[in-house]
Automatic annotation (TrEMBL):
Keywords: ATP-binding, Nucleotide-binding
Positions of transmembrane segments: none
Name of this chain's protein: ABC-2 type transport system ATP-binding protein
Top-rank taxon, per record: Bacteria
InterPro entries associated with the record: AAA+_ATPase, ABC_transporter-like_ATP-bd, P-loop_NTPase
PANTHER family: ABC TRANSPORTER G FAMILY MEMBER 20 ISOFORM X1, ATP-BINDING CASSETTE, SUB-FAMILY H, MEMBER 1
Signal sequence coordinates: none
Annotated ranges, domain ABC transporter: 2-230
SUPFAM superfamilies associated with the record: P-loop containing nucleoside triphosphate hydrolases (SSF52540)
Keyword Nucleotide-binding belongs to the record: yes
Any Pfam family matching the protein: ABC_tran
Length: 248
């Protein structure tokens, strides 16, 4: 679903993403982990067809990330860090806006109704989005990002500013979607969320510093062969030298 080789992005003299390789298979939940400024959003934006790389090659859903950006944008779901919702529109109007953007015409009413039900948005359906607290915004943004049932979802820190109950419900939905075959790439700097992923790619200052299944990495970076690391926190601190990774 995703294949990147040596993807690089510079902003002036600063290398935000440095020769990153990444491979994600269908139905996987892949976690992109790193402190603030590690390069996660920049990498996601290149995979989503929103930003051109300066170097390297990549394919997303079989499309070239340099030359087929529009095709990628039409087929994927992207939930950006800022949630990209219109504060003056109601929940339902936001969903309708995204439906139009994704070109959903047939079965529109049914699809909107099913998203409202699946994300338990009935009680805020006619509320303006700008008046809703964070947990609701996250649900509306997530419902919008997958209105068109995309086979591949990019979620950029989807649970930041969200309470633990909503976070747990959110992850249950991710598992359900992955079970149904959706591929998910999710960024986080919360290590207990990283532990829930099938695979993780850890970034630091634009580079990939660790990559693999969580248990495999805990063994690989263990201090001795008999005692794997207890948590990903230890790995994160070891590889990035950063202890304060939750909220930055
Ligand atoms: N458009 C831009 N122009 C200049 N510098 C940029 C631009 N976008 C990102 N950067 C820089 O590139 C680096 C990586 O940023 P990026 O947003 O990709 O990191 P991140 O891992 O997603 O962090 P965060 O969790 O804070 O979003 C940062 O130093 C950032 O300041």
């Amino acid at each position: 679903m995703i294949q990147l080789q040596s993807i690089t992005k510079k902003f002036g003299d600063y290398t935000a993403v440095d020769q990153v390789n990444l491979s994600v298979e269908q139905g996987e939940i892949c976690g992109l982990i790193g402190a603030n400024g590690a390069g996660k959003t920049t990498l996601i934006r290149m995979m989503c067809g929103l930003l051109l790389p300066d170097g390297g090659e990549g394919r997303v859903l079989g499309f070239d990330i340099r030359h087929q950006q529009k095709a990628i944008r039409q087929q994927i779901g992207y939930m950006s860090q800022k949630f990209s919702l219109y504060p003056d529109l109601t929940v339902e109007e936001n969903l309708r806006f995204y439906a139009a953007l994704y070109g959903i015409h047939q079965g529109l009413e049914k699809r909107i109704a099913s998203q409202i039900e699946a994300f338990r948005l009935e009680e805020v359906r006619q509320e303006r989005v700008g008046r809703l607290p964070g947990g609701w915004l996250q649900r509306v943004a997530f419902a919008s990002a997958q209105l068109h049932s995309p086979p591949l979802l990019f979620l950029d820190e989807p649970t930041s500013g969200v309470d633990p109950v909503t976070r747990r419900a959110f992850w249950e939905q991710l598992y359900r979607l992955a079970d149904e075959g959706t591929t998910i790439l999710v960024t986080t700097h919360v290590m207990d969320e990283a532990e829930r992923c099938d695979h993780i790619t850890m970034m630091n200052q634009g580079e990939v510093v660790a990559e693999g299944a969580v248990n495999q990495l805990k063994k690989e970076f263990a201090r001795d062969e008999h005692t794997p690391l207890a948590t990903l926190d230890e790995l994160f601190i070891q590889l990035t030298g950063k202890g304060d990774h939750d909220g930055g």
